């Protein structure tokens, strides 16, 4: 790692990037193409955001060959990481960048959704801000449409701006087939088998609204976007009816404290 900067041999044109990409904790990053990095247009505005911008750029593109002391080298190294991250946010919304990130997404490099009902849905990295040093990277689940903190502390410290607020949404617009079907399944709070009254009432109200929305969409001949249209609904209902009927005895025991939902 110490001698990469002095090595300007053309055989090692992506030496710094190779090292960066393969470093532990940098798994979320893809390799930015040489021609993208060397096109000044793509770097517009970054010279004011990154200290030692020119040195950092030289380092990233493997043309840095100045003798500097350790302290200076460390500062340039930090700037190079910052520069790479900010260019990365721009690169991953290009056709080439999207394709590279899509491959990583398919392989599950960014991890899986911790929500049980999402059934190990693969996640995508994202930022809550596009401005550097505002917040750390989060992971987006397209199934539950929620965001999570990365599990590992070495990913938790990555700047969210290195991925940006739009990339994960653009990816699904460009590759719509990767978008998981919406599911109607969700966790129902129960106490000894009985649905907790307040949440059950809220769920029923939400389900009614959803059914109304689906009816409106069907009238317009539009896809509702939910998986297992309606079939799932009936199954769930009949299952619950049977269950409730079979527990009348317990029902009496808890009378006044809990209201099982019919
Ligand atoms: Zn999820």
From TrEMBL:
The keyword Ribosomal protein does not apply. One of its GO terms (molecular function) is kinase activity. Residues 217-262 are annotated as: Disordered. Keywords: Kinase, Transferase. SUPFAM superfamilies: Casein kinase II beta subunit. Residues 225-246 have a biased composition (Acidic residues). The keyword ATP-binding does not apply. GO terms for biological process: regulation of transcription by RNA polymerase III. Transmembrane segments: none annotated. It comes from the Eukaryota. Pfam families: CK_II_beta. One of its GO terms (cellular component) is cytoplasm. Belongs to the casein kinase 2 subunit beta family. Regulatory subunit of casein kinase II/CK2. As part of the kinase complex regulates the basal catalytic activity of the alpha subunit a constitutively active serine/threonine-protein kinase that phosphorylates a large number of substrates containing acidic residues C-terminal to the phosphorylated serine or threonine. Tetramer of two alpha and two beta subunits. Tetramer composed of two alpha chains, one beta chain and one beta' chain. This is Casein kinase II subunit beta.
């Amino acid at each position: 790692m110490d001698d990469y900067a002095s090595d300007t041999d053309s055989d090692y044109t992506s030496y710094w990037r190779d090292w960066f990409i393969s470093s532990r904790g940098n798994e979320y990053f893809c390799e930015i193409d040489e021609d993208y990095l060397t096109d000044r247009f793509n770097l517009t505005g970054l010279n004011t955001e990154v200290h030692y911008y020119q040195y950092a750029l030289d380092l990233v593109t493997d043309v840095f060959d100045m003798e500097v002391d350790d302290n200076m080298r460390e500062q340039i190294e930090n700037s190079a990481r910052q520069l790479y991250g900010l260019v990365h946010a721009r690169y991953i919304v290009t056709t080439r960048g999207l394709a590279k990130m899509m491959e990583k997404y398919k392989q599950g490099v960014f991890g899986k959704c911790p929500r049980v009902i999402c059934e190990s849905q693969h996640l995508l990295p994202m930022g809550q801000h596009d401005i550097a040093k505002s917040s750390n990277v989060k992971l987006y689940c397209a199934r539950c449409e929620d965001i999570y903190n990365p599990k590992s502390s070495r990913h938790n410290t990555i700047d969210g701006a290195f991925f940006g607020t739009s990339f994960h949404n653009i990816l699904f617009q460009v590759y719509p087939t990767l978008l998981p079907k919406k599911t109607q399944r969700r966790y129902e709070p129960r106490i000894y088998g009985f649905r907790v009254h307040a949440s059950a009432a809220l769920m029923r109200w939400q389900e009614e609204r959803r059914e109304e929305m689906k009816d409106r969409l069907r009238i317009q001949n539009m896809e509702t976007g939910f998986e297992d249209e309606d079939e799932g609904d009936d199954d769930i209902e009949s299952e619950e009816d049977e269950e409730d009927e079979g527990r009348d005895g317990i029902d009496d025991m808890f009378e006044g404290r809990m209201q099982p939902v019919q």
